[in-house]
Amino acid sequence: MIQSRHDATDNAVVSKMNPTTAGDFFQLLQAYQARTGTTLPLFAPTPASTAPAHEALEVHGTTVIALKFAGGVLNVGDRRATAANMIMYDRADKIIPLDDHTLIAIAGAYGRAMEVVRYLRHAFKYYARNQLQPMSMDGKLQEVSRALSANLPNALGGIGLFIPILSAYDPNTDSGRIFFYDVSGARFETQEYGAAGSGSERIRGIFDYITRTRGPFSQRPLDEVLRDAILMLDIASDLDSATGGVDKILPTARYATREGVFTVTEETLREIVQSIRGRNL
Predict the structure, then answer these.
(1) What is the pLDDT of residues 121-159, one digit of tens each?
(2) HSE-CB of 94 using CA atoms within 13 angstroms
(3) Main-chain phi, psi angles of 50, to 5 degrees
């Protein structure tokens, strides 16, 4: 097989790396930067704009919800993306698989978040191919922290600020796990649920009410938890103008279990929305 010059050069870079870090995609990028003298966008502060702050509009994703259920973890998000008081797009996908057992839900600066998502996908796959095994849960969590830390100069400058929720099925515990982050990359694990985005502030009390009246989400079946998630997203859209509804454009819903990551069908989502609407008439 004829090998391209680009591949041969990159392989040479990898071969010079410490064997214990040969699966580290971040270090591969750093080596590439040092060799070529270029700066990759993900790790470069965005130049300050000379335009007034109100003219430098970013597209932001809004409400995302993560809930455990018996055997896994569910993520639901509306489809609206806004820029200040404008609706820029109504079919944004904010619930994205990173690998066969990991989901990330993004709220905030959509463009920068998608850069980080692409980086994380490559980092997970690069490690798996080099080490011949999937990255550990701790490794995945550290990669997210590293990406957020690299983005901190932009966030402090008011550009590129986003908050992710990482959800994953953990084979070591045979259950779903949910982690949320602050802007600097510090992570925190939540026991039952997580939410981010402008609409999440409006519905935080509902999570506790449901767990106290119906039991922990982690002990209930997927269909019940999914209905609760859609209902909370619907309530958030009533109370927060930046959150899209669940009628005109159906939300995104994905879940992770021992068998992998799955997407809830539009038919199932439509049935839930119709049942909620029928009960509210």
Answers:
(1) 999 999 999 999 999 999 999 999 999 998 888 888 878
(2) 37
(3) -85, -10
Nearest Cα neighbor of 67 from 79, 81, 77 is 77
In angstroms, rounded to a whole number, what is the distance separating the alpha carbons of residues 100 and 103?
Answer: 9
Strand partners, 81: 61, 89
Q: Comparing C-alpha atoms, which of 160, 142, 151 is closest to residue 184?
A: 151
Look up the pTM and report it. 0.84
Active-site residue (options: 62, 211, 243, 257):
62
Indicate the CATH number for domain 57-280: 3.60.20.10
Return the amino acid letter for 24. Answer: D
Cα distances from 60 to residues 160, 188, 197, 268, 276, in angstroms, run 9, 23, 9, 27, 28
Is 50 tagged catalytic? no
Number of C-beta neighbours around residue 134 at 10 A: 17
